[in-house]
Amino acid sequence: MSTAQEAPKAVAKEDWSAETGRARTWFESLRDRICAEFEAIEREAGSDASFTYTPWKREHHGEPVPDGGGGVQGLMKGKVFEKVGVNVSTVGGTFSADFAKTMNGADPDNPAFTATGISLVAHMANPHVPAVHMNTRFLTTRKAWFGGGGDLNPPIPYDEDTADFHASYKAACDAHDPAYHEKFKAWADDYFYIPHRKVHRGVGGIFYDHLECADEAGFEANFAFTRDVGDAFLNVYPALVRRRMGMAWTPEDKLKQLTWRGRYAEFNLVYDRGTLFGLKTGGNIDAILMSLPPEAVWE
């Protein structure tokens, strides 16, 4: 009989409530910094537009879900930002049996989940200013993971803007893993694609999901990366807005923007997983659909 002492078996972490709280605090602080910067841009354009914040509670069939959490919808309509939403939510509960089958680490026998994150979509008044989408999130089922990214959606693309946007995210990725940017850029190109139109939604960015946290060390590493993704957005996008917001545009430019917005709406309503997740988990309808443009055309 061996007298060697067996190594203790690894025990999967089950309680991620403290980490969920830390992620929530970060997402809220990122929201505050982004909104302050966007309001500063409005002031530079001679506008007094500001964000309005509307809290909401998670519901199921119109009834509040006890301990289901909720969020705050931030919305601004201004001179530069025709419509921009910056939402933060923290929700929990159980998935439906069918939806649980589609979620990482969940199943009909164990459908509990928590989710906290920030989601941003900006539609701009000037067709030369690129629209943008960004989100980062932390979810738990039987597993825990981060996801997120950002993508640039210019109706009238400029190579300089595209290069700067990608460079900001590449720097964030390279600080953590030299393989991240190529992988997550390709993932964005694949994800933000409209199959029935056979076109991409924009000029891309990065997209990542199921960046799993096996333990607390894994959480710290993935949380640090996700924070850098958020900071990368804040470092580059306001600069792009300021670069283009004073440019003159023609009726033809505006038509390009409105037509492009129709494609954007098609993607978000037909293919976007975040939209589906929000609708399937009792999220606030107005906050979920804030991604839709204020005006669009289909020619």
Describe the structure.
40% of the residues lie in helices and 26% in strands. It is an alpha+beta fold and 299 residues long. The protein has a 7-stranded antiparallel beta sheet. A two-stranded antiparallel ribbon has the order 2-3. A two-stranded antiparallel ribbon has the order 9-10. The longest helix has 29 residues. The mean pLDDT is 91.
Task: Describe the secondary-structure layout.
Blueprint: H1 17-44, E1 52-57, E2 59-60, E3 63-64, E4 69-76, E5 81-94, H2 97-100, E6 112-124, E7 131-140, E8 144-153, H3 159-174, H4 180-191, E9 193-194, E10 199-200, E11 204-212, H5 216-244, H6 251-270, H7 273-280, H8 285-288
Antiparallel strand pairs: 1-4, 2-3, 4-5, 5-6, 6-7, 7-8, 8-11, 9-10
Helix pairs in contact: 1-5, 3-5
Low-confidence stretches: none
- Radius of gyration based on Cα positions: 20 Å
Biggest beta sheet attributes: 7 strands, antiparallel
Query: In one word, what is the shape?
Result: globular
Compressed to H and E, one letter per element, the order equals HEEEEEHEEEHHEEEHHHH
Largest sheet, spatial ordering of strands: 1-4-5-6-7-8-11
Class of secondary structure makeup = alpha+beta
Number of helices: 8
Secondary structure: helix percent = 40-55%
Distance between the termini: 80 Å
